[in-house]
Amino acid sequence: MSKLDDMESYLELASKVENTRAQKDANKTMLQKVTDVLLLKKMFEKIEDRPTPSEVYNWRVYYTAFIASAAAIIIGYDGGFIGGTVALDSFREEFGLDKMSKSHADSVISNVISVFHAGCFFGALISYPFSFYLGRRISLIIAATLITVGSAIMLAASSKNGLGPIYAGRVLAGLAVGFSTNLTPVYLSEISPPAIRGRIIALYEIGWRIGDLVGFWINYGIDSHIAKSKTQWFIPFAIQLIPSGMFLAGSVLMRESPRWLFSVNRDDKALDNLTWFRNLPLDDEYVIFEVNQVKESIDYQRKKVGLGLMDPFKEVFGGKDHRVLYRMCLTCGLFLFQNFLGIQSINYYSPKIFASLGVKGTNATLFSTGMFGVVKFVCTFIYIMFIVDSFGRRKAFMCSSSVCSLCFWYIGSYLKVNDPTKPGVTAGPGGTAAIVMMYLWIASFILAWSGGPFVVGSEVFDQNIRSFVQAINAAVSWIPIFIMSRYTSNMIEKMHYGIYFFFASLAVLSVPFVYFCIPETKGIALEDMDKLFDLPAWRAHDSVLLGARREAEHVMHDHKHLFKMDTNKSNQIEQIEDPLLVSKV
After folding, report:
1. Domain carrying residue 228
2. Quick one: pLDDT at residue 198?
3. What is the DSSP code string of 164-214?
């Protein structure tokens, strides 16, 4: 062995880690313990399912995650720029919206916004066969190419050509984005070490927020510094080519998922990629254990379900115990709550919403939406660094929903008694408080619901059905996005303050849903996710994590004879001879 002499020394390392932690806790004074409680230190610890070499937490995983997450920049940018751009007078005059009735113009704008999401829905569904046959990397390259082409087509729109190129380009780009919303979280979950998997997947959210930030502020910048002309609305559309080009160039440099390579029996390439991602030699105990863990999971699924294209469909919808179908319904529920809590309405119609709260003038509303993007960006970093892998997914969901609900109850109540859009009515201190509540709402939402469903949805399914189920999850998520982007304008006109009561009520309902149905997944290996759903959600995490640590010790200590060097293969990797025996330990 390159780092340890034998398996017993690995166990010795595990014991030392636990003993050191216990000794540190024992030596703390009462004041230090109280301070730890007040600072919530236990909540923000990095949770490992086994002792992990520091080399595993290296730049290669983060570098790859940033490249893969470039697709999210396009999604975020679209949410940030399109609502403000189509509201510009220059855009409305270019395409004759200023000569239409208000209802007709609102309908056209809603169509421009929502056709993108219709494309996303179908793109998410068709991504599964591409991912199955071509792998994660090639499929992402295809998505990057389609996004770039679609972004270029939109630039052909003009008063002469009409909105046709924008419709066509947004549908094509939407198809590609639908691809990426399925494949990117799955890919990131498969290359990540368990202890930082949530953080790595959440980098997808960072890309989203970067796009958000640029999209929100680009409209403010052009409205402030560029005279009303075609250039004013053309620039925001042209900027889409920058992130799409970055995504295309970066995707070519990515390495394929080792887990996918193992599933298609390309072991040599899988081992090469895994050791590259982990920054460890092939004979390191950590690599050996992970390889055998993945192979055991794949072998079990091959015997239980099969690894064919349609086998996941049979497993999900034709399984005898329906446990996988139930689990998929739970993850779909997370995505439905995510997009029906109000985020899409706020994203795409933020200028109109801030105007309804008393913000006057196009430039002022665009500035308010720009600050909205800043809050989202900052809170995304907080989520990645301190929440997702420390505080956890489950508690974050429930805390976020509680705060979001309170914020919208206040805003709805304020608008019920005081409507600043009516002549002679001023916003007053209550209106200022409503704007503050809107910023507090988005901060709370981003700290859990924005990225959390993507993290959980990409974690909790077995290797051979993960891509299929994530395609379903992604498609389901685009349904409420399409509905809200298409009909929010109508809801604001018809429901007025009631739209906030609607979103607040859904936030309340999400709390018991998470408490009773969604287990904590932080620090749990992908291969151990099944065990979480065999226990009540509110106590599953601690039981499974403790069991995983004990199982690692038992396998390595009591069953060393199961590990042997395979001298008949060039990769020289140690393998478990009988995975079924190990599963009984």
Report:
1. 59-262+311-527
2. 76
3. HHHHHHHHHHHHHHHHHHHHHHHHHHHHS-GGGHHHHHHHHHHHHHHHHHH
